[in-house]
Design brief:
This protein is α+β, with helices and mostly antiparallel strands. It is built from five helices and five strands. The chain is about 45% helix and about 10% strand. The strands form two sheets. Strands 2-1-5 form a three-stranded mixed β-sheet. A two-stranded antiparallel ribbon has the order 3-4. The longest helix has 20 residues, at about 5-20.
């Protein structure tokens, strides 16, 4: 191997790991979540996806778990969001996340706005990151949340 070939090999070896991080990674295995709803005290623990994809019965359970607890209204849950949550939890070594807020209807947002809360524009991303951050703190350090 000549010097030019050797340097090309080294440059490729250095560049490949950074390129690998830019590619989307598959969801972590197992596709399990352990969740606590801070308001209702309900819990969810289970596998939501298998090798064939999302498990419909479990996705329905998660839709109920992540419902607007003020009205009872629920929506279908995006499995990519659950994959992201599972991946982040595994990456930071957490085995449970506390859900502070999930789906909210426009009526609930209006009611909370009348009470002085300013509803976030993008509920899922804001509260997902908040719940992960709070899972590393203690309840006594949490500010009030709607």
């Amino acid at each position: 191997m000549d010097r030019r070939q050797f340097l090309s090999f080294i440059a490729g070896a250095v560049a490949l790991p950074s390129l690998a991080h830019a590619l989307p990674s598959p969801p972590p295995r197992p596709h399990r979540l352990n969740l606590l709803n801070a308001h209702t005290k309900e819990t969810f623990s289970g596998i939501y996806r298998d090798d064939n994809g999302p498990i419909p019965r479990v996705m329905d359970e998660l839709s109920v778990f992540l419902r607007d607890f003020h009205t009872g209204d629920k929506i279908g849950i995006d499995v990519d969001l659950l994959d992201f949550l599972s991946h982040v939890m595994q990456s930071v070594g957490q085995n449970q996340a506390t859900i502070l807020s999930a789906y909210r209807t426009p009526e609930t947002n209006a009611m909370l706005a009348r009470k002085g809360f300013k509803p976030a524009e993008n509920r899922w991303s804001v509260r997902l990151l908040s719940s992960l951050r709070r899972s590393r703190s203690t309840p006594s350090t949490w500010p009030d949340s709607a």
